[in-house]
Structure formats: structure tokens, C-alpha cells
């Protein structure tokens, strides 16, 4: 297991230095692991910041300057749980699409379908097809925190 930490140092609200601290493993092991994944050899916070922005734009209770607010932490946990399930099992991600060997004709003046859209769970091999909202709602929920009904 390799794990690294990115520390951002600020002075008067300006970023002055970024340091990488290996928490589990060495600098060279982290560099080679990142390079084999096709990434740059430097740790960064881009992926985490991208997920934070997507979450904030997708969940109305987290959007800045909004009338929609969660009444408490348990309600916010349920809202974020729904978003995670929707994002992982239902909503296709453009970066995970697969080029079809033979384009599928869709008739009339529509262009043929060249890609197979898939969500992250399908790309990871957890499901063979995209879930529908009805299938997601039919799944048994884990126990809820107290005070949420």
C-alpha cells in the first residue's frame, strides 16, 4: 500500500510552497506507482478537488448561496449517500466510455452510436449494465442514524 500526503503552505493567503510527504511507502515508490498509472510523478490534490466541486454542484444543500439547506448532519448524510449511489451506479461518466467495435445505427437522421456509456461501477466490473432509478430505490438501505426518518 502506498499513501502520500500533500501539504500546502500559505503566507498571507498566498500559496508559497507545496511539499509531498509519504505516509506509507517511499518517495521513489510513490513516483514509480504514479508513472505506471500514466500520471505525473508528483502528488496533487486535483482529483479530490474535482470530486468536491462535483459534489457541491450536484447536491443543492451544499451549493453556496442557496435556499436549500440540510436541517442537520443525518439528513445531509442521506442526501450525499443518494448522490454517491446515483453517481456510481446510474450516471455515465464520459471519461469511462468505451469505443464500440461496430457502431449501432439509431435510425432516421440520428448519428450512429459509437460509444458505450458506463458509470464507474460498470467500469469496475461490479455491474453488467447501468442501474435505473427504480432499481436503485428497490435496494435495501443500510441502517439509518438516529433521528432520521
3D architecture notes:
With 149 residues, the chain is α+β, with helices and mostly antiparallel strands. It folds into two domains: 1-44, no CATH class; 61-149, no CATH class. The protein contains five helices and four strands, in the order E-E-H-H-H-E-E-H-H. Strand 1 and strand 2 form a beta hairpin.
* Structural class estimated from helices and strands: alpha+beta
Biggest pleated sheet: 2 strands, antiparallel
Identify the overall geometry. extended
State the helix count.
5
Which spans of ≥5 residues are poorly predicted at pLDDT below 50? Answer: none
Radius of gyration: 21 Å
What's the domain count? 2
Distance between the termini: 39 Å
Secondary-structure blueprint of this entry?
Elements: E1 3-11, E2 14-24, H1 27-36, H2 46-58, H3 73-90, E3 98-104, E4 113-116, H4 120-123, H5 133-138
Antiparallel strand pairs: 1-2, 3-4
Please supply descriptive tags for the structure shown above.
149 residues, alpha+beta, 2 domains, two-stranded antiparallel sheet, 5 helices, 4 strands, extended
Amino acid at each position: 500500500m502506498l499513501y502520500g500526503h500533500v501539504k500546502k503552505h500559505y503566507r498571507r493567503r498566498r500559496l508559497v510552497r507545496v511539499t509531498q510527504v509519504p505516509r506509507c511507502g517511499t518517495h521513489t515508490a510513490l513516483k514509480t506507482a504514479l508513472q505506471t498509472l500514466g500520471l505525473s510523478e508528483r502528488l496533487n490534490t486535483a482529483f479530490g478537488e474535482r470530486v468536491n466541486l462535483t459534489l457541491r454542484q450536484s447536491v443543492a444543500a451544499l451549493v453556496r448561496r442557496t435556499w436549500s439547506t440540510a436541517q442537520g448532519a443525518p439528513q445531509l448524510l442521506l442526501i450525499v449517500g443518494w448522490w454517491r449511489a446515483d453517481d456510481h451506479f446510474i450516471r455515465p461518466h464520459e471519461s469511462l466510455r468505451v469505443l464500440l467495435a461496430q457502431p449501432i445505427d439509431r435510425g432516421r437522421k440520428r448519428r450512429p452510436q459509437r460509444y458505450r456509456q458506463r458509470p464507474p461501477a460498470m467500469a469496475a466490473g461490479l455491474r453488467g449494465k447501468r442501474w435505473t432509478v427504480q432499481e436503485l430505490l428497490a435496494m435495501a438501505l443500510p441502517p439509518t442514524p438516529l433521528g432520521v426518518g
